[in-house]
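User: For a benchmark we're assembling, each entry needs the component sequences followed by a predicted structure for the full assembly. Here are entry 17's components. Please fill in the structure.
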Amino acid sequence: MRPLVATVDLAALRHNYLHARQCAPGRRAFAVVKADAYGHGARRVVQALLEIADGFAVACIEEAEVVREVAPAARLLLLEGCFEPAELPRAAELGLDIAVQGEAQAEALLAAELARPLNVWLKLDSGMHRLGFDADGLRACHARLKGAAQVAELNLISHFACADERGHALTEAQLERYAEVMQLGFDNCTLANSAAVLTLPQAHMEWIRPGIMLYGATPFAELSAAALGLRPVMSLTGALIAIRQVEAGESVGYGAGWVAQRPSRIGTVSCGYADGYPRSAPAGREVVIHGRRVPLAGRVSMDMLAVDLTDLPQAQLGDAVELWGAQLPIDELAQACGTIGYELLTKVTARVPRRYID
Ligand SMILES: Cc1ncc(COP(=O)(O)O)c(C=O)c1O
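Assistant: Structure for entry 17:
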């Protein structure tokens, strides 16, 4: 068996969920489990949170079907609503909460014959300009949906564009636009993603929507997950599958771009970009072996990468290699690659087995 595994620490996941709720006392929290729970495996993540979570949120009805199998009674929110009118009856059968993010969705809802009314989350475009009604459109839609046969609760939702950059002027503007519309009267309101859960109490409303923080990564460039009290959930661990000595002046890997400056001991690790390790990882990025950091040597290939073991003589064939996780924050690698933890987590590919520990 290929020695590469993504170990998912479910106790850490639960800790992070409870931490989110502690940040917003008395509020309820949708655990955001879209994109297969940010790459961690939605089924197992939902099972692990079932006893403690107030609800779950996903991006589409296909994801909702999976969550419903393991969470028959939980509140389950479709963050982008139904993509076509034909999904509405299924949403009602599944007992979903749905976002309504534009005119077409509102029309379809009002025209639908549903087995039961749905909890609706009217989406305000408070400044992100991706989905949602402007303030006037939202007022008009509120008037039409209030009391409609298809609607149970009428709720308000919006999303921050820059909450991860503390003090950003747009966040203040979004809060103001949201507060104005809130006065129409809603059963429930929600606004806060992880960044706002952690740093913007005025955005907490009745429901928070933490995503990335559940998985122990930070939404902020300058605040680490550990400093925020989060525990890493996924550790990606491979092994040394070959070790060789190369002379000074010899190169390693594709493109021969890494050249040994001294006689070097090179290890080959069972993880590559086809597993989700970023090919863009720059020279000098590190992995952890025996609790020690060791630099990459040369380009990441599809199934393997090389590391310089010269300063770690105790490293042996078969030794475990942590690519990210409990000993090496994913956010460090993400930042070095010009991306975010979200992207690395959701790009761990299907061929990497997930192993769950409690
Ligand atoms: C509408 C909505 N709410 C909440 C979240 C969770 O955001 P985060 O992972 O930053 O907490 C997302 C994720 O992108 C989202 O799209």
